[in-house]
Structure formats: C-alpha cells, structure tokens
Amino acid sequence: MNPIQLFDPASSTYTYILFDVDSREALLIDPVDEQLPRDLQVLREHGLRLVWTVETHAHADHITSAGLLAEHTGAKTAAPAGCGIGGASVQLQHGDVLRFGDQAVEVLHTPGHTAGSVSYLWRMGSSTGSAGHVFTGDTLLINGCGRTDFQSGSAKDLYHSLTQVLFALPDDTTVWPGHDYQGRTHSRIGQEKASNARVAGKTEAEFVAIMDSLNLPRPKRMDEAVPANLLSGLGGPVRHDLDGMLEAMPRPATGYAGDVSPQLAWAWVQAGQAVLVDVRTDAEREWVGFVPGAVPVAWKQWPGMALNTDFDRAVREAAGGGNAAPARRLVLLCRSGVRSIAAARRATELGLEAYNILEGFEGDPDGQAHRGARGGWRHHGLPWRQN
Ligand SMILES: N[C@@H](CCC(=O)N[C@@H](CS)C(=O)NCC(=O)O)C(=O)O
Ligand SMILES: [Fe+2]
What we know:
This protein is α/β, with parallel strands linked by helices. The chain contains 12 helices and 19 strands. It folds into 2 domains: 4-229, 4-Layer Sandwich (Metallo-beta-lactamase, Chain A), CATH 3.60.15; 250-379, Oxidized Rhodanese, domain 1, CATH 3.40.250.10. A 6-stranded mixed sheet has the order 1-2-3-4-5-6, with helices on one face. It has a 6-stranded mixed sheet with strand order 7-8-9-10-13-14. Strand 8 (103-109) and strand 9 form a beta hairpin. Helix 3 (155-166) packs across helix 5 (204-212). The protein is elongated and about 75 Å long. It starts with a strand and ends in an 8-residue tail after the last helix.
C-alpha cells in the first residue's frame, strides 16, 4: 500500500497521507500552509478521517498547516521532541509508535539536518511482500541529503543517521523524501546506499568536508517560517494566521458573494461546486497563460462605458441554469484580482452567485500585478498552461 504523495511547488515540499484501507483512519506528514484546502479536499475525496498530523522537523522554508489542519479535522498534532515545537500536542521520542486503524508508524530519531529531525517508518506486514516505507524528511533526499548549516545541524550526526539508522533498513524499503528539487518522487534504501552522491562510499570525514563546502543560500522564508513552525503554524506572523483561514473559507465582500483564495476556488471547481470564469482578454491569456477548463468571458467594462451586453450574456451562459436547473456558482479570475471584483459585482446584479478570486492569475498579495510576483494562481501551483 503506497502513501498518497502531494507536492507544494513553491517550496518543492512533499506532503504524505498514509491511511488504513478498512478503517479509513489516516496520518499526514509535513503539511504546508498554502495547501490546506487541497489537503482537506484529498481527505474528503478518499473518505479519510485524519487522526494524526506529524512533522519531520521544524521547517525553515515553508510554514506548516498542522495547527489549522488539526482544527479542521480533529486530528492530533505530533512533533519530534527535540524540535522545540511547543504547539504540538504530542512530543515524539525515538521508538514511539503512532497508530491509525490497524497501521503503525515508528519514530526514528535521525538528527543532522536539525538536531531534532526524525524519520517515520511504516512497516508493511510480511504477507504484503513489501519491506515498507520510510519518510525521511530532509535527512535523506534522493541522491542527496538535507543541509546541516543551520538550526543545530551537524554533518557528523547526519552521517551517523544516514549510515547507521536509515541504511540499516532493508534495501527494498521505499524512501519518500521531504523535498525534491528535480521532480523525482521516491527511491529505495538500497539505491541510496549504493549511489547517493553525498554519502555512498564516503568516510565520515569526506562527508563532513562535502557538507561544509556546500555554501547554499539561506531559505528565503526562513525568518518567518521557523518561529511560526515552532507554534505549529498558529500564532506566527499575523498575515499567515489570517491567510490560513482565508484560504479555507470565503471572506465576506460588498456587492458580491465573497472573496476566495485561488486554492479554495480550484477546490470548488474540481469538486464541481463552481465554474471558473476567466475575465482576462484573449491577448492576456495568450501572453501569460491559460487555466484549463476556465470559461473565457473578457471583462471590458469600465466607468462611462455603455453596458456590455456580451459579458452579461456570456456569464449567464457560463452559470447555466434555467428550466428548473439552478445556476451554478461562479468564481472569477483576472490578472491581479481587481477587474474580477467589478465582474463579480456585475454578475451579482444579474442574480448570479459570484466570488472574486484573490490575487488573480499573477498578482501579489499587495495588489500589484507584475510577472513573476509572489501570489496569484501561478504562485500557488494551481494548474495552467502556456497555450
Ligand atoms: N531555495 C530554498 C531552500 C532550499 C533548501 O535550503 N532546502 C533545505 C531543506 S529545508 C535543504 O536541506 N536542501 C538541501 C540541498 O539543497 O542540498 C528556499 O529558499 O526555500
Ligand atoms: Fe528542512
């Protein structure tokens, strides 16, 4: 039985959902704040009841959604005792076992990337013919390993964790890393033991020399991420606390149904609960990118301009309805999150249930539209294509 593997493109982080087929109880490893609506959706789609949300370490590159996920699902939070994550309700020690349904996951203390880092071992029964799965966080990455230059990292400790703890597992144990920056998904213990570029065939001194000479740039979000993660993502910088809530539910607005995060809009569209209407012009879409399945209805109405009956007709058609069928809810997307407000107001005047998607396709949270900005549909890793 494989875990469900989910990816956050902004931080290249893998989140895993492990579940027990019969009881539908689940355990989730390393949730990412921006992906809370996605994770809730996946749990719903699979009919799972989350009983644990756990961390492999206090992350430096993204903020966890563990606190919010626990609030939404009733799951318990657990974190490695050596990580200082005081917000977690259970502090894990080496050898502790977490249970969900008939399944069990064992905690392996694997320090080095951070002093408290752990890996989680999900053993399979011998009858399954699988040696099991190990979730290595940033201790062991595919053909690499976590850096050791901050957060009480230690190359010596990491060498020991890799060679004595993880490489002691059966060769056919599947390795599920905390990140991959090149699109690889999983590996095997035997493969990493034989060919991992940083550690295979290296002495401790050679490994330490490699780690000391990496000279990696600091993670961009480190200063906000670490303090927030020590509180399970709750009570960190206010913006993130609010964002987490905003992402999972609509925010009331004047003149239309509400503002929604790009993630929530996409979750609704996928669940068939809303139609996505793209109000950018054809030229803009061709220039910056299309959203698959979106209905194009350009908003070309500005103050002083005569009412645009094309928009009215097209948006009514997108919502459908009539002949006793109710019109469908609309989520409106533009480039930076400004025009979609005007369009949502007009759709509301037409009697439709219309929401504005915050930050647009490429706007940033401060409302500035420029290519490559943080924020927007693309930044959150939602689907789009160039043409
Ligand atoms: N560029 C990324 C940081 C990447 C990074 O430093 N990742 C850490 C894991 S939190 C690592 O150990 N990387 C190992 C490596 O790149 O070899 C960011 O700004 O967030
Ligand atoms: Fe990390």
